[in-house]
Design a protein that fits this description.
The protein has about 280 residues and is an alpha/beta fold. The protein has a single domain, classed as 3-Layer(aba) Sandwich (UDP-N-acetylmuramoyl-L-alanine:D-glutamate ligase). It is about 45% helix and about 15% strand. It has a 10-stranded mixed β-sheet, sandwiched between helices. The protein is globular. The two termini are about 25 Å apart.
Length: about 280
């Protein structure tokens, strides 16, 4: 077990090749957003923008048609894939798997909704996924108990961890939490980023703890930024456990900086513009 520091995180991320061209520095696919909830497209867009600000070249957000139109208004830098219909369903599986072939990492879950059809789609997609994948938010509930065929990153807080593993971790001492997370990561063939006052990140072999961050980060949307960073760093070539560790560290550092300036009045969208500063610090 290691405590994350800036020096460690520098080992996890590689500098950009000066001779590279568009698309060679990471492509991310975000699957999320729905028509039913007005904030859902914003959550998907937030995650997508975070992945772009992590240093990747391209990000596509796949969402039901009306939600995709809303997502496209958040930034001209996002590519919106407009799926037919009002919500996600299993009829979209084939198209999403095709889109994944052109992505270096996929994030599924932000603002997706927990109705029966999107949940069925999320579980089927996760089961058939053949690339680097981050499972967050609503998709965590859809994939409860799953053993992933390809190594994945999951990003639960204590309640989502309970839903995914059927293990209550809240209230336990840090040492006990670490053992549970390590064992669960091995069982489910994934990297777990357990969010909390102290984050625990483990793939069952390597384990990190992260103490950056503060209570203000309980505001809605910061988890979507974190998931977007996980996807971005994965797309840039970091291993799942290193991508998750770097994302937790950067997200927490940004939160701490915002707290110094704004107290507890910051919101998730404030994070996006601060990501480049920390990427620059890491790659210096």
């Amino acid at each position: 077990m290691e405590t994350l520091t800036l020096r460690q995180v520098r080992r996890f991320l590689r500098p950009r090749d000066a001779n590279s061209h568009k698309g060679q520095n990471g492509k991310v696919l975000v699957i999320g957003g729905c028509e039913k909830f007005t904030g859902a497209p914003a959550l998907a867009a937030m995650a997508a923008l975070a992945s772009l600000r992590s240093g990747t070249d391209l990000c596509t957000v796949a969402a039901p048609q009306k939600a995709a139109w809303v997502i496209s208004t958040y930034s001209p830098d996002l590519i919106a894939e407009k799926l037919p219909g009002k919500g996600f369903s299993e009829r979209h599986l084939r198209r999403l798997l095709e889109l994944q072939k052109n992505a270096d990492a996929t994030l599924i879950g932000p603002g997706m909704g927990r109705e029966k059809k999107p949940m069925a789609l999320a579980r089927q997609f996760a089961a058939k996924s053949k690339g680097a994948m981050v499972v967050d938010a609503d998709a965590l509930f859809a994939c409860a108990g799953m053993k992933f065929k390809m190594p994945a990153i999951i990003t639960p807080h204590a309640h989502e961890f309970l839903e995914f593993t059927a293990i209550k971790i809240e209230g336990k001492k840090l040492g006990e939490k670490i053992k549970i997370v390590e064992k669960s990561a091995r069982k489910h063939n994934c990297t777990i980023l357990l969010k909390g006052r102290v984050d625990i990140i483990s793939d069952g072999a390597a384990t990190f703890i992260n103490s950056t961050g503060n209570a203000g980060m309980s505001v809605g949307g910061t988890g979507d930024v974190l998931a977007g960073l996980c996807a971005g760093f994965s797309a840039l070539g970091a291993t799942p456990v290193n991508a998750a560790a770097a994302a937790a560290f950067v997200n927490g550092k940004i939160g701490d900086g915002l707290f110094k300036k704004m107290g507890y009045s910051f919101i998730a969208s404030d994070f996006i513009g601060q990501i480049p500063k920390w990427i620059k610090k890491i790659l210096q």
